[in-house]
Design goal:
Blueprint (H helix, E strand, L loop, with lengths): L2 H17 L8 E7 L3 E6 L10 E7 L7 E7 L4 E4 L5 E11 L2 E2 L6 E5 L9 E5 L4 E5 L7 E8 L6 E6 L5 E4 L8 E9 L2 E2 L6 E3 L2
Antiparallel strand pairs: 1-2, 2-5, 3-4, 3-6, 6-7, 6-8, 9-10, 10-13, 11-12, 11-14, 14-15, 14-16
């Protein structure tokens, strides 16, 4: 076997061991964009060390002075989407971790976040006799869902209940057999209420 080839082969096998325990170059260039969510993007260490185990994303929430761990992110993943619902000033930083310890932090990146008014969705209703099941596609940015009901298409609307946006399911278990009910819903968050969904009437 060619000696040069053999040496290159051995060094290739030893490369992970040689970098194992190497202090990490810190991730850098943390940037933020805001919309319905807060999106963080950063760059790996320069030059990157191949044995980082994971990244740690930390957050400093509004009216606080202390960072706390928000999420662990897999190695080689350099983005994270944070879903906040309360408006305010949010700050973030990121570090890498391996067996040698923690890297330094990235720059601090902050954003004044104001959630957008949530959109609407398409409602469907299934008749279950003494129960009606409402289903809808979850609405991005919604804190919760307000459900409404009326008897017949000419009745008065009244608030029925709050429902979780995920997974888009609510059972009305106080329905009466033989009564026609109509339903609609809307999402809300700290920015306000979204528009009503379509109205669905379910004859028994």
């Amino acid at each position: 076997m060619n000696k040069r080839f053999f040496l290159s082969f051995i060094l290739g096998l030893l490369a992970p061991a040689l970098t194992w325990g190497q202090v990490l170059n810190p991730p850098n260039s943390l940037a933020i964009t805001g919309g319905d969510t807060i999106v963080l993007v950063w760059k790996n260490g320069d030059p990157p060390v191949p044995n980082e185990m994971f990244f740690v994303v930390e957050i400093k929430k509004p009216n606080t002075m202390i960072y706390e761990i928000l999420q662990y992110v897999a190695r080689d993943v350099v983005t994270y989407t944070d879903r906040q619902f309360i408006p305010g000033h949010y700050c973030y930083r990121v570090k890498a971790i391996n067996d040698a310890g923690d890297s330094d932090y990235t720059n601090e990146a902050c954003i004044d976040f104001m959630p957008k008014i949530p959109g609407t969705t398409v409602l469907a209703v299934t008749n279950g006799g003494e129960k009606r099941t409402l289903t809808w596609t979850p609405i991005p940015g919604a804190l919760s869902i307000k459900t409404y009901r009326r008897e017949t298409k000419n009745g008065l609307w009244y608030f029925l209940s709050y429902a979780g946006n995920m997974p888009g399911l609510f059972d009305d278990e106080i329905a009466t057999v033989g009564t026609v009910y109509c339903y609609r819903l809307k999402a809300y968050n700290w920015a306000g209420d979204g528009k009503y969904s379509n109205e669905v009437c379910d004859p028994n």
